[in-house]
Structure formats: structure tokens, C-alpha cells
Amino acid sequence: xxxxxxxxxxxxxxxxxxxxxxxxxxxxxxxxxxxxxxxxxxxxxxxxxxxxxxxxxxxxxxxxxxxxxxxxxxxxxxxxxxxxxxxxxxxxxxxxxxxxxxxxxxxxxxxxxxxxxxxxxxxxxxxxxxxxxxxxxxxxxxxxxxxxxxxxxxxxxxxxxxxxxxxxxxxxxxxxxxxxxxxxxxxxxxxxxxxxxxxxxxxxxxxxxxxxxxxxxxxxxxxxxxxxxxxxxxxxxxxxxxxxxxxxxxxxxxxxxxxxxxxxxxxxxxxxxxxxxxxxxxxxxxxxxxxxxxxxxxxxxxxxxxxxxxxxxxxxxxxxxxxxxxxxxxxxxxxxxxxxxxxxxxxxxxxxxxxxxxxxxxxxxxxxxxxxxx
Length: 374
What we know:
The protein is α+β, with helices and mostly antiparallel strands. The chain is built from 19 helices and six strands. A hairpin with a 4-residue loop joins strand 5 and strand 6.
């Protein structure tokens, strides 16, 4: 984490106390050049010298030290499979976050008081309590199907800006990208529509978990909690209990999987999500497992010919810019393109900006630009 001395605060304190840089260096016991290096950000004092500097200038730590990373965009990825997040991925995402900052003032006023899970835990009963409270907030019971529109509405109520994108099925690292701008207190969430329908709801719920736990965003613990929360809110204890009771009565593996698959289809979620939550329930209740291996579940899941979200929304593919923007606003209730339109008309921002923040080709960016400009 990069820290520098607040040169403006130092100069103001020197003037107030009638000191110059040479006298300050003598008080601290360092050379004048050392102080110069601190003020230029070329070096940072060691803790004993930092304490002496603060005492000599009568400044608090917060007044004296500038944390240059404090307002950097905070990034969270919903990665594809076992893809590894590298420094390059983080830097690229942060660059996108920095580019989004000028757009913020063109957004409608956002919700500032947002619900939070104050003590996130993956312990079964604590997690189920958090899930129950979230479902109650959304307005559905514990056995109800959590619909896409429930999740989209909750994002809207929490002040998150959804950006549906068409990033391809294999070309990018993320299934979803979460960018929180701490200074602006705004969250942007990119959702890749080129993903399977059965997985899409899980990724949306994963991002909602990040909204509820901002203190963990960008941390490994945050990703672990978001995965568990996502699975549990889609198929909570009340449903897992019923599914377990049905499946355990079946004598064959095939019929047990069929029972679980019926719930997966009803709730429009992955078979693996149902399987996992039934397993967590059985373990928490000290009940015998279903005796089905995860590999068998994955094999069944992979044999199912699932449609992609983009294909279900847009026919034909790829969509024309007008339809893409209209869908973002009508289905995903996104304020993104409205803000982009206001920004372009007021500042003269060009298509290269669209290319960068949407990570699209220059031809697609120019087509979107023309549509937004009209």
C-alpha cells in the first residue's frame, strides 16, 4: 500500500509555526534532503521519524499521511472455473474503474443507506439466517423461486449500476466484474450475458453478496462467502430439506439425481447448486448423505444442452445497438446508458471511451456511440 507525506499540510504547519525546512530537519534529526525526499514522495519516513515529524508539526497521522491507495477502485471477480486472477487482471479492472469515475455525476441520485450483513459467516445456521433475512427483504418466502427480477430489483434498491455485456463465452477472465468506487460510494457490476442460463442466477446472487458485505469485497474471504451465500439464497434450508427427503427415498443414483434435477429446473439454477445445498443440509443435520459423487453430478450437468442468456434475450445474435441498450434499461433496469448519453452530450466524449469501459471493438463502440448520440 503506497503512502506519502501530505506536503501541503507540512508547508501549512511550517508557516503556522514559523519554521523552515532546515529547522524542521534539525528537530527530527535528519538531513534537509531527507525531508525534501519525503515531501516529493520519493521516500517515506520510518515509524520513529514519522512520529517525530508529526510531533514537530503538531499534526495527526491522518493529516500528515496520504494513503494513495485509499480511493482506488475495489475489484471483485466472479471468475470462470479455475481461472487465476493476476496482477494484470486487477490493474485492467482498476483502469476500468478509474474510467467510470467521470460517469458517476451523470447517474441519478443513488441509494446511500444500503443493507449490510455485519458479521458474514459460512457456518450453516448463521448463513441460513442471513439468507432468510435477505429473502424477507426481497419479499419472497423461503420456498419461493428467487427470480431474476427479484435480484435485479434488489441491485436497484441498493444503488448498484448493472452493465450487461456480451464478452463471449470463453474470451474473457470474468463471468462478472464488481467495481466499487469508495470515494463516490458507487458500485458498477458487469454481467456477462454470454453465459449459461442455469449459472447466470448464481453469478448475480454472488454479486449481491458483495453488495451486502462491502468490507470483504476484493478479499479471498469475500469470494468464499459470496459463493456460499449465492448457493444458499437460491436454494435455502427449507427447500434443501424437502429435496433431501425426496431424494433419499429413491433407491438408485439415477432416480436421486432426477429428483434433484427437477428442483434445479423449477428454480432455474444449476443441478450442482441443488446438490451442494442438499449436502450441506444433510451434514448440518447429521443425516446420511445421498452417496452421489460430485463428478457424477458434473457429468450429468455437462450433458445438459443449456441455452445462453444472450441467446434467450436476443434473437438473432448479435443484437443491434438499439435493442441492446433498450434491453439494458428495460430488463436490467440499468441507468448506465442514460448516464452515458448525458455525459456524451455535455462533454463531447467520443466512441473510444465506450470501447474502453465496455471492453468492446471499436466498430461496436462506434455503433453504440451513434445510437446514444441520437
